[in-house]
Amino acid sequence: PFPKKSKIFYTPSNFEKGIHVKYEPSDNIRFGIVGSIDPNKNIFFALKLYSKLVQIFPSGSFIVLGKVSDAGYLKLLEEEIIRLDINVTFACYESPEEIYHCLDVLICCSHDESFGLVCHEAAMNGKPIISRELEAYNEVLAGYPLNISVDDTIANLADVVSFLKESRSFYYKNPYFRE
User: Fold this and answer.
1) Closest CA to 93 of 1, 5, 6, 19
2) Rounded to a whole number, what is the distance in angstroms from the first to the last CA of the chain?
3) How far apart (Å, rounded) are the C-alpha atoms in residues 124 and 116?
4) What share of the chain is helix, strand, coil (3-state, %, to 5)?
5) How many CB atoms are closer than 10 A to CB 74?
6) How is the beta sheet containing 7-10 ordered, strand by strand?
7) What is the rounded distance in angstroms from the CA atom of residue 39 to the CA atom of residue 59?
């Protein structure tokens, strides 16, 4: 059974059914990760980071956008979500435009990445990015002002919070990225 606060939502790939969130300027930051749901994407790290961020941004939300490629890993994620007592939405997507319409902040935390295409797409859409220290992310995001890197200990959480509070003035005011 789920604790009272934890909720896991599954949505169909049709984004017309509740994924789009009407913009209200607040601390309702929509964090998310994009990619297949498998161990290489290191979603446990993203959940750990989000569980710390939601204490500072209690109106925030977290979405995992991608297809399940490892059902066993999904089961482990569900157990971790319950343990962390957080709300998470799992959804599929059909186009990159849908992805970046649904997210305010992208969390990139793969164990290994050869290029970091998702980081590149998010940057092209003007999204703030929290990325793990990884060579591919560092190369793709070099010079991108809306990026902050974190190590596996998340020792710089205060820096991440400051970054989010400062960078949101950009993405909250840019109507191109909102409904």
Assistant:
1) 19
2) 36
3) 13
4) 40, 20, 40
5) 17
6) 7-10, 87-91, 61-65, 30-34, 105-108, 129-132, 147-150
7) 28
State how far Cα 176 lies from the chain centre: 20
* Separation of alpha carbons 101 and 83, rounded Å: 29
Contacts (Cβ under 8 Å, ≥6 apart) of 57: 27, 28, 29, 164
Q: pTM of whole model > 0.90?
A: no
Long-range Cβ pairs for the range 129-137 (8 Å, 24+): 129/105, 130/49, 130/105, 130/106, 130/160, 130/163, 131/107, 132/42, 132/45, 132/108, 134/108, 134/110, 137/108, 137/113
Task: Give tens-digit pLDDT for 64-119.
Answer: 988 888 889 999 999 999 999 998 988 877 676 677 778 888 898 888 776 778 88
Three-state DSSP state, 108: strand
Give the strand pairing for 7-10 and 105-108. Answer: unpaired
Given the DSSP bridges, would you call strands 30-34 and 105-108 parallel, antiparallel or unpaired?
parallel
